[in-house]
Amino acid sequence: MARQAQTSTAVLGALSVEPMTGYEIRQVIADVLGHFWHESFGQIYPCLAELQADGHVRSTPGDRPRSSRYEITDAGRARLGELLREPPAPQPPRNGTLLRVFFGRALPADDLRALLDAEEQATLALLAGYSAIRAGIASEAQYAEHTPYWLATLRAGELGAEAHLRWLDETRATVLPPATISPS
User: Fold this and answer.
1) From the DSSP assignment, how many helices (H) and strands (E) are in the chain?
2) Annotated domain spans of the chain
3) Beta strands per DSSP E along 23-141
4) Radius of gyration for the alpha carbons in the chain, expressed in angstroms and rounded
5) How far apart are CA 36 and CA 129, in angstroms?
6) Distance between CA 115 and CA 96 in Å, rounded?
7) What letter does residue 5 receive in the DSSP assignment?
8) Alpha-carbon distances, residue 141 vs 135, 145, 163 (angstroms)
9) How many CB atoms are located within 10 Å of the residue 7 CB?
């Protein structure tokens, strides 16, 4: 699936939940999908124009000047289904922590330990955030038909974070010398 098709999938998917402005679409993608997907305004607005030209979305004037509210059409729902059936394009991973651990031999042990400790704190914060998201999903009764899918996606994040914490422990045990305790 080409990059533009994936952007269309994210935009049509967001609009399948409820009508939104381009700004609201970007906010939903950043706030809700941001744990696993990213789109910029520079990708969203051209995509909306193309989707509108193709009859997949329609717009009405928004609440602000020069603002439009978009909603998915029946043709857009059909297109979303087609896009969701396409296999996703592989994305090359980019992980700054793994890059640093890979070349960790060039770092003093204390620096590598600090890097792993900071990564652990960030992962624990991510897990806490997932817990808050889980509570928020449970309280969104108007989206009940989406709940099992949102929870499945959330669970992938939770399991990934839990696995990452285990990896951090194993990495500390295999690449770092035991911490020394200075005598008092």
Assistant:
1) 7, 3
2) 3-85, 96-175
3) 57-61, 68-72
4) 21
5) 14
6) 11
7) H
8) 12, 9, 31
9) 21
* 95, burial (CB in 10 Å: exposed 0-12, middle 13-18, buried 19+): exposed
- What is the dihedral angle through the alpha carbons of 120, 165, 140, 68, rounded to the nearest 10 degrees? 60
- 20 Cβ neighbours under 8 A, 6+ residues apart: 14, 28, 69, 70
Geometric angle at alpha carbon 82, from 77 and 88, rounded to 5°:
120
- Are 112 and 101 contacting, i.e. CB atoms less than 8 angstroms apart? yes
CB neighbour list of residue 15: distance below 8 Å, 6 or more residues apart:
25, 57, 70, 71, 72, 76
Q: Does domain 3-85 have CATH number 1.10.10.10?
A: yes
Mean pLDDT of 80-103: 90
- Other beta carbons within 10 Å of 169: 12
Q: What is the pLDDT averaged over residues 148-166?
A: 96
Q: What single-letter DSSP state applies at residue 110? A: H
Mean pLDDT, rounded, for 165-173: 96
What are residue 57's DSSP bridge partners?
A: 72
- pTM of the predicted structure, to 2 decimals: 0.79
Pairing label, strands 20-21, 68-72? antiparallel
